[in-house]
């Protein structure tokens, strides 16, 4: 049975992905900052397939707890670094950005994913595993107010690209899901109606296509990934592939 570690699984894309992975027979280790929401997730799924650990990925002690849970499985086939920190809301311009809060964004969005990759490298390498770092178009486009979160995601993109070169045995992806109807996206647009954005569940088929087809390591957007073709066919048309 394949094993995945999915961070930020209590809400949004992480929760939707966890649900689909369990339906496909995966065993999961998941985390999130809200214990009650993780408990709800476990009740909705097959409890014996999910180890849910509340905590903050920026906390080294929590990361060690995740590692211990993964090691009990004896393998790791997939690491999805989905947990993210948007930063202050409303989003401040860089000239006003509190540097302590910017550092907190980088701790969650850049350093924690790298730390988890380092901690689990041995198991990932043993299974020729997959690393998925959830990124954003804010990492490649300049939007006013998005300098903190966007620059963190740009750093995560670059780290992903370098890791792909350094670790050719692994599949390493930066996955851009696009706008979604999530709590974090709502925080980015306080007071606005974001009900026109796609729900996270609609993005999961593209992410699963990436995980299951294992195209060349690189940066991929959900909208560019084919989800209705033969799973043996790898079509990277429109994807931003690392070289």
Side by side, the strands of the main sheet go 3-2-1-4-5-6-7-8
CATH superfamily: NAD(P)-binding Rossmann-like Domain
H/E element order: EHEHEHEHEHEHHEE
> In terms of per-residue confidence, which ranges show pLDDT below 50 for 5 or more consecutive residues?
229-243
Structural class: alpha/beta
If helices are DSSP runs of H or I spanning 4 or more residues, what is the number of helices? 7
| Largest sheet properties | 8 strands, mixed
CATH fold descriptor: Rossmann fold
Share in helix:
40-55%
Mean pLDDT: 92
How many individual β-strands?
Answer: 8
How many domains make up the 3D coordinates?
Answer: 1
Shape: globular
So what's the CATH class?
Alpha Beta
CATH architecture: 3-Layer(aba) Sandwich
Oligomer: single chain
Distance between the termini: 32 Å
Radius of gyration: 17 Å
What proportion of the residues form beta strands (DSSP E)? Answer: 5-15%
């Amino acid at each position: 049975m394949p094993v995945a570690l999915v961070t930020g699984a209590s809400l949004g894309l992480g929760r939707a992905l966890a649900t689909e992975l369990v339906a496909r027979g995966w065993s999961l280790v998941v985390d999130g900052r809200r214990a009650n929401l993780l408990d709800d997730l476990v009740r909705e799924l097959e409890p014996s397939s999910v180890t849910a650990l509340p905590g903050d990925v920026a906390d080294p002690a929590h990361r060690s707890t995740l590692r211990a849970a993964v090691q009990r499985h004896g393998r790791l086939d997939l690491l999805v670094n989905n947990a993210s920190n948007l930063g202050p809301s409303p989003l401040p311009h860089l000239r006003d950005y509190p540097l302590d809060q910017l550092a907190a964004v980088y701790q969650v969005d850049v350093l924690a994913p790298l730390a988890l990759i380092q901690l689990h490298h041995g198991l990932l390498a043993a299974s020729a595993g997959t690393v998925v770092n959830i990124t954003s178009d804010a990492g490649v486009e300049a939007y006013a107010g998005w300098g903190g979160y966007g620059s963190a995601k740009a750093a995560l993109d670059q780290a992903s690209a370098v890791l792909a070169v350094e670790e050719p045995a692994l599949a390493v992806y930066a996955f851009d899901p696009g706008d979604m109807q999530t709590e974090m996206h709502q925080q980015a647009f306080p007071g606005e109606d974001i009900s026109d954005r796609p729900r996270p569940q609609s993005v999961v088929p593209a992410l699963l296509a990436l995980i299951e087809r294992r195209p060349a390591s690189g940066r991929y957007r959900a909208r560019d990934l084919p989800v209705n073709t033969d799973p043996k066919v790898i079509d990277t048309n429109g994807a931003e592939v690392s070289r």
